[in-house]
Amino acid sequence: MNKQEFDRLLEKYADVVVKVGLNLRSDQSLSIRGIIEDAPFIRKVAESAYKAGARYVDVLWDDENIKRIRLQYADPETLTSLPEWMLHRYEEYYKRGDAELAFHSLNPDLYNGIDSDRIAITRKTLSQKIGEPLRKYSNHSNWCVVSTATPAWAKKVFPDLPVEEAQEKLWEAIFSACRINTPDPVQAWKEHIQKLDKYKDYLNHKKYANLRYKAPGTDLTIGLPEDHVWGGAQESFTNGITGTVNLPTEEVFTLPHKDRVDGIVTATLPLNNQGVLMEEFSIRFENGRAVNSSAKKGETDLRKLIETDENAGRLGEVALVPNSSPISQSGILFYNTLFDENASSHLALGNAYKTSMQGGADMTDDEFTSRGGNKSLIHVDFMIGSAEMDIDGIKQDGSREPVMRKGEWAFNV
Questions:
Q1: How many CA atoms within 13 Å lie on the side-chain side of 241?
Q2: 51 vs 54: CA distance, rounded Å
């Protein structure tokens, strides 16, 4: 595409982020987290935000190569250090009810060759010092996660193309997945959200006690808490704003009961977690806990991820995505969870969202866990869906109904 057309699509993308993803209110400030390579699009978002009446747009810049350099050369004892101002910055925005936009565009091979212990230390440190303290504010402010076609990521997705051609092709895929190349992307998103709401409402009406998954390499039963709530498409925040937290999104999701997951599940797509790639892996669960895991690539990293804390080896999310989703049908392996999780039904290791349980947002951690919710420092999605997967919903009386057959919805809404 020529520069004029590309700029036009970038502006439409920025407007979708501001109007659909964040649903930015005119009296809000906007905090943005991104890497240097995201800069051209971040500027478009800032322009759209100010046009929407934003008070202030503040960008916290990062450099993924500096992250790698630190892991390579820093004294291991210093890897648990983070400046206090980082936490204070996030708290300031959340407490005031301002908006946050995060970019997820890292190089999937960023930490190739880095010692897995160093990676595990920095992951846990971030979760403890930034992630965990801020979870109490997670529903206070409207937030959204998006991506840009950075050079390293594009080259990973399209390794046979020169980097500029790879970037253009990845941008085209992002625009398509985010409905930017439609005549009216904002309206297209409204219609898509309405469709996802119908699936969510159907599942909430059913109130299944368990889900049974069957596919090659997968035979898994997941219990659902009695008061589970299916969500999807949009989330409502205590500042009064409703937004779409992931762009793109094709899922409806809820939380599993932390103690009622049994069987084996095999990933159908690679998992890129913070620059570490894990491929062709399986996890066996007993009474909710991962008791065994194996992987063709990244097995040690997978084990250390599961061992991050006491409950990292339990599940915190179950999400359903039809194999016919446009991201799946693109045939592109993105090596980026934001996209790949919307090509495939998936699960998440670790923390469960309190909003996925009726009244959960007002519960203490102890109340939440006593009802079956999981609390952990991590929340890592991994993809398990395929065109060969069948899922049954099991009612309280033990009767079964088809939820998915061969990767597609088995009911009409």
A1: 25
A2: 7
3-state SS class at 11? helix
pLDDT digits (tens, 9 = 90+) for 45-82: 999 999 999 999 999 999 999 999 999 999 999 999 88
Total number of residues shown for the chain: 413
**How far apart are the C-alpha atoms of 32 and 148, rounded to whole Å?**
14
Bridge partners (DSSP) of residue 380 are: 349
Name every residue whose Cβ is closer than 8 Å to that of residue 78 and which is 6 or more positions away in sequence: none
pTM for the predicted model, two decimal places? 0.90
pLDDT digits (tens, 9 = 90+) for 83-139: 888 888 888 888 888 999 999 998 988 888 898 889 888 888 887 777 766 666 667
DSSP 352: P
Using CA atoms, how far apart are residues 65 and 94, in angstroms rounded to an integer? 28
With a CB cutoff of 8 Å and minimum separation 6, the contacts of 412 are none
CA 58 – CA 68 distance, rounded (Å): 25
Distance CA 15, CA 8 (A): 11
DSSP character for 312? Answer: T
Q: Which of 349, 369, 354 is nearest to 306 (CA)?
A: 349
Per-position DSSP letters for 65-130, written without gaps between them: HHHHHHHHHS-GGGTT---HHHHHHHHHHHHHT-EEEEE----TTTTTTS-HHHHHHHHHHHIIII
The full 3-state SS of 203-235, as one line of letters, equals HHHHCCCEEEEEECCEEEEEECCCCECCEECEE
CA-nearest of 219, 179, 153, 132 to 20 is 179
- Helices 116-126 and 299-306 pack at an angle, to 10 degrees, of 30
**How do strand 400-405 and strand 390-394 relate by DSSP bridges?**
antiparallel
Yes or no: say if 251 and 344 are a contact pair by the CB < 8 Å rule.
no
